[in-house]
């Protein structure tokens, strides 16, 4: 069974998200959208567009969007078979969060790493 196949997204908090988004847009050319982030389209080895994106997002530092994790960031890892991976992680003694989520964007599950960082696992919908 494959485990992680890529990075689906990087999410982090900022004290002043609007200013930080503007900095990334101005200085690094990131196409920040009204929803607070950007979607980077994938390309194959031949340079042609691929079926997938990596999301980048800055959220306000208020609240605990990555709870029960303790870090101000969360990385979303792309996986092929979320249920099988979560079962394997449980069997290996990892702290898998019980509440998962399914939507038109795919299936999501979470695990805490040994330092308390919340790790998001994402199985994209078919065709992505």
TrEMBL record:
Highest taxon of the lineage: Bacteria
InterPro entries: Anthracycline_SecMetBiosynth, Glyas_Bleomycin-R_OHBP_Dase, Glyoxalase_6, VOC_core
SUPFAM superfamilies given in the database record: Glyoxalase/Bleomycin resistance protein/Dihydroxybiphenyl dioxygenase
Record-linked Gene3D superfamilies: 2,3-Dihydroxybiphenyl 1,2-Dioxygenase, domain 1
Protein's name according to its UniProt entry: Glyoxalase-like domain-containing protein
Domain VOC: 6-124
């Amino acid at each position: 069974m494959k485990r992680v196949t890529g990075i689906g997204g990087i999410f982090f908090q900022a004290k002043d998200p609007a200013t930080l988004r503007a900095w990334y847009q101005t200085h690094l050319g990131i196409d920040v959208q009204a929803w607070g982030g950007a979607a980077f389209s994938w390309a194959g080895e031949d340079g042609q567009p691929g079926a997938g994106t990596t999301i980048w997002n800055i959220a306000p530092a208020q609240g605990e969007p990555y709870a029960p994790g303790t870090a101000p960031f969360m990385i979303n890892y792309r996986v092929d078979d979320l249920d099988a991976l979560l079962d394997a992680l449980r069997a290996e003694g990892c702290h898998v969060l019980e509440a998962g989520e399914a939507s038109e964007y795919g299936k999501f599950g979470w695990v805490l790493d040994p330092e308390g960082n919340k790790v998001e696992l994402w199985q994209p919908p078919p065709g992505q």
